[in-house]
Design goal:
Elements (H helix, E strand, L loop, with lengths): L9 H18 L13 E7 L2 E3 L2 E5 L3 E6 L28 E5 L4 E7 L2 E11 L1
Parallel strand pairs: 1-4, 3-7
Antiparallel strand pairs: 1-2, 4-5, 6-7
Length: 126
């Protein structure tokens, strides 16, 4: 009997069917579902004149760390007029970082004042 025709144990067939069903269920999930909130320390890289990631959701108590990965150009992190959390870093040369612990839920929009097109949004949840 060739290997393709050999009988398979029932447990292997059931596991394969269950795996297929789980995979299909995942395929039907919405791509617009909200991502799980991060906690602990979350890093944001300023690279190629943009924040990476640009939009994120974190839990209260999370520490964010921005690092300037752009060679030869300074950036900063500011959130002027924000009622949730005011961010104000010094000028960050290449390789330098700025960190802040977020203690209040809400939305924080920030930018680099040297390059105002460099923006980001942080959603802080309980």
């Amino acid at each position: 009997m060739c290997p393709q025709m050999m009988p398979r144990p029932r447990s292997i067939v059931l596991a394969a069917l269950l795996g297929s069903a789980v995979g299909l269920a995942a395929c039907g999930s919405s791509s617009h579902s909200s991502p799980a909130a991060s906690s602990g320390v979350v890093r944001i890289a300023y690279r190629n004149y943009a924040a990476h990631p640009e939009d994120l959701t974190v839990k209260v108590g999370t520490t964010l760390v921005w690092t300037n990965d752009d060679a030869g150009v300074d950036h900063n992190v500011t959130s002027e007029g924000q009622s949730v959390e005011h961010l104000a870093s010094a000028s960050l040369a290449t390789g330098q970082s700025f960190s802040v612990k977020l203690n209040t839920p809400g939305v924080i929009d920030y930018e680099c004042t040297f390059h105002p097109f460099m923006t980001g949004r942080i959603t802080v949840v309980e």
